[in-house]
Specification:
The protein is mainly α and 80 residues long. The chain has one helix and no strands. The model has no long low-confidence stretch (mean pLDDT 91).
């Protein structure tokens, strides 16, 4: 191999190495962003799940109170 060919080959190899390094850094940055979004979404899902349970608990409690009050009212007025 001639010195000129060797130098050209080393230059190309260096350029490829730089491109690969840039690509790896770019992918790493992208993956960190995606992981942050996934983490935020998981937190939001947990909050939403907790809110749904609270809503169901409130609706169940409200139904129990209203139906108990209605049963007492019907008993008081002699309908039931």
């Amino acid at each position: 191999m001639k010195p000129k060919e060797r130098d050209d080959l080393l230059i190309r190899l260096d350029e490829r190495t730089d491109n690969i390094l840039y690509m790896v850094k770019d992918h790493d940055k992208h993956l960190r962003g995606i992981n942050g979004q996934i983490s935020a979404n998981m937190t939001q899902i947990a909050v939403n799940k907790s809110s749904v349970y609270r809503i169901w608990w409130f609706m169940g409690s409200s139904f129990l109170i209203i139906s108990s009050g209605l049963a007492i009212a019907l008993k008081v007025f002699g309908v039931f």
